[in-house]
């Protein structure tokens, strides 16, 4: 008896947070999944749970995506598959003054959040274009639109993801393939849970309405179906970005500097 057709979704960084929420949402929609992560035990447990609950097939791969050779191996694997949706979600941030951070940290961040999405996307796009369907979500950030002191390289690579995705969307017009830069604001995941007192100050800020991973993923998949190349979940984030863009650059930088000094405890 023939197996029913199910689309294939690939999610990097799927062990927790936004990546785990993508895996859950796609499983619920009937996707088979290929999930990557660094925490092998947690990834295996999550994969088994999705298989049992939704009757899908899940392949779990432990991959260190800040290592170019491992990215290349994963890219080769994806070339052999008919991928319907790729979610480039794996990432990390650094809350430290630029001059105090070891160069290897910035190199790993750029490998993970620039080199990896480029290689994986280039691996799946030819097949998608040939079939006339498919999608790629690049998880960027509200920081794509803003300077972020003590996290400037992170903001820079997220800005790259935004501009590259918009450019790619123009190249792919009429192909049947949709690409999206997903730009969430602060989201309650273990990513921001590592910020300690700085995270607590952000939680108390009147300027921030925190999102959940599920809210972010619902917005992303909804906008992907509408063919929108940029998704900014939450009215608060959209309002901040719009209002700050209207201000003169000097005033915008002054306000942002004051805000980030208040959340870091510096004066």
From TrEMBL:
Coiled coil: none annotated. One of its GO terms (molecular function) is oxidoreductase activity. CDD domains: SDR_c. The keyword ATP-binding does not apply. Keywords: Oxidoreductase. The keyword Oxidoreductase applies. PANTHER family: NADP-DEPENDENT 3-HYDROXY ACID DEHYDROGENASE YDFG (PTHR43086:SF3), VERY-LONG-CHAIN 3-OXOOACYL-COA REDUCTASE (PTHR43086). Belongs to the short-chain dehydrogenases/reductases (SDR) family. This is Short-chain dehydrogenase/reductase SDR. The lineage of its organism: Bacteria, Thermotogati, Synergistota, Synergistia, Synergistales.
């Amino acid at each position: 008896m023939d197996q029913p057709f199910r689309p294939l979704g690939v999610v990097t960084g799927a062990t927790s947070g936004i990546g785990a929420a993508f895996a859950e949402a796609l499983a619920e929609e009937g996707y088979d999944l290929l999930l990557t992560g660094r925490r092998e035990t947690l990834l295996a447990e999550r994969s088994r749970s999705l298989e049992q609950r939704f009757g899908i097939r899940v392949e779990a791969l432990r991959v260190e995506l800040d290592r170019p050779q491992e990215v290349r191996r994963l890219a080769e694997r994806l070339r052999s598959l008919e991928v319907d949706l790729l979610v480039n979600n794996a990432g990390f941030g650094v809350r430290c003054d630029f001059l105090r951070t070891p160069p290897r940290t910035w190199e790993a961040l750029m490998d993970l959040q620039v080199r990896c999405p480029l290689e994986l996307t280039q691996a799946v796009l030819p097949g998608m274009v040939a079939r006339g369907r498919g999608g790629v979500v690049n998880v960027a950030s509200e920081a794509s639109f803003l300077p972020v002191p003590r996290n400037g390289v992170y903001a820079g690579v997220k800005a790259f993801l935004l501009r590259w995705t918009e450019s790619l969307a123009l190249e792919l017009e009429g192909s049947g393939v949709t690409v999206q830069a997903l730009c969430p604001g602060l989201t309650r995941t273990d990513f921001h849970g590592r910020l300690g007192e700085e995270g607590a100050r952000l939680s108390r800020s009147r300027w921030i309405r925190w999102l959940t991973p599920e809210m972010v993923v619902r917005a992303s998949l909804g906008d992907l179906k509408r063919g929108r190349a940029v998704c900014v979940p939450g009215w608060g984030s959209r309002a901040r970005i719009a209002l700050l863009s209207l201000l003169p650059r000097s005033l915008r930088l002054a306000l942002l500097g004051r805000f980030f000094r208040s959340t870091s405890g510096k004066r």
